[in-house]
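Much of what follows relies on a compact textual record of a protein's fold. Each token is a code from a learned vocabulary of local backbone shapes. The record below shows the convention in full.
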Amino acid sequence: MLLGFKTELILNKAQRTALMKHCGIARHAWNWGLGLTKQILDHNNALPDSKIKFPTAIDLHKWLVALVKSENEWYYECSKSTPQQALMALREAWKRCFNKTAGVPKFKKKGKRDSFTLEGTVKILGNNKIQVPVIGVLKTYERLPQVLTKSATISRQADKWFISFRFDVETQNLEQTNVVGVDLGVKNLATLSTGEVIAGAKSYKKYEAKLSRMQWLNRHKIIGSTNWKKAQIAVARLHMKIANIRKDTLHKLTTLLAKNHGTVVIEDLNVSGMMANHKLARAIADMGFYEFRRQLTYKCQLYGSKLIVVDRWFPSSKTCSNCGTKKETLTLNERVFECGDCGFVIDRDLNAAINLSKAVS
């Protein structure tokens, strides 16, 4: 299976400038392609009798070379694969839009999620050096896996730059046979059917006051000034810290589940519907339920374990794990499950986790 690897780069001033140029070209190619494709769609809607064929990524790149690249010499200062990959990404974004799995692609703004993809001569040299087209050799803080790769994506978060690439890795078969049910929650990140409770990072809640204070102090700074740029970087660093703490907790939990259990059973949560509850939306987002399922999916495949997703309407919380009697109503503030039939008393989340583990048998 394909596995991704992402690590921070050690850069000098010249390399930072080169990376910013590549980001600018990728952004320009994306915005140009998006504007053109939107014009084509508007034309086809207005004049259905004389429709223009929606262009492929190859068509867009041919038009870019003929109409844009020839008139803008700065395109030749960067790798030719950068605008090409940006247009391929745009075509995929439109494909997801047409399939109704994502919204309409948006124009990119400078300084917001800057990234670009390089394809061609990408070689790993030694333990912490990687060679990429045009830019040359880049150093990393972390040891790189000694693998072959044909492309790499370089992105910026706050004032730090990262490189990521994918490579083939053999799946492992740890031959575990035990089953574990996992109930996700807001108070605690996860409750396992074994009785173990995993506390959530709650990183946003921890740094919410500090983040609010920083943003409040920066409210009167002149946009574009040096002090404004410094403040923006400081806020972005704190956002990155919050996200990294959350990801670290999720990585440790999903690895623990996938490596030590043969079958992992979770519930198909309606995260977008849960986020509509304004009283719980912030706490749910702070836990990272979607990221938990994404990580668990590929890690179960990597370690040879099985992931079972139970239907979201399965009454895991309302059913007694001792006798199987189902309650008609169970409010959210009832944290202890009391069975009216057999008198069994148990923690609500643990009861749900045990029911999930029994759902596969």
Summary: Residues 120 and 328 are 61 Å apart (CA to CA). The mean pLDDT is 92.
